[in-house]
Amino acid sequence: MTDPNNPDQNKPEDDWAEAMAEQTGDDAADGADDDPWAAALDEQAAVEQSAGEPAAAAPASAGNAGEQVFKPLDQGVASPGARDLEMIMDIPVKFTVELGRTRITIKQLLELTQGSVVELDGLAGEPMDILINGYLIAQGEVVVVEDRYGIRITEIITPSERVQKLNR
User: Fold this and answer.
1) Which stretches does the entry tag as region Disordered (predicted)?
2) How far apart are CA 94 and CA 130, in angstroms?
């Protein structure tokens, strides 16, 4: 219901209609010249030309626009493998050496005290498992270096050997 004493009551609808008219009027007048992708590609081409690189042609379709705007990662790098490794060098991993395992009941766990001995399934002199983030990658033997324990890697586990060990 409209109130004749309140002329602002119809104002939101009028504003909406005006905005729609402006938008359709601008699109018809400007056409494809106002395309933000085209403007960005032109700007990129200008930057590349000023840097002495060949300019990328405007894309024929949106599907290959990414190929022309973004450079492949391996351009300008002597060896692609070195760059790949550089990207992951600072990622921390959890390094674990496993002496052995055992299964005990909760009752046995609650009976453990200081000085208790827990028997493991690993044998003395048997290689220790070396795990990275929980995945077996190598085996080694325990060494003592200046009053600290260490591990000497004796065998690197190949991916096929890892699968075989999982099946045991």
Assistant:
1) 1-75
2) 10
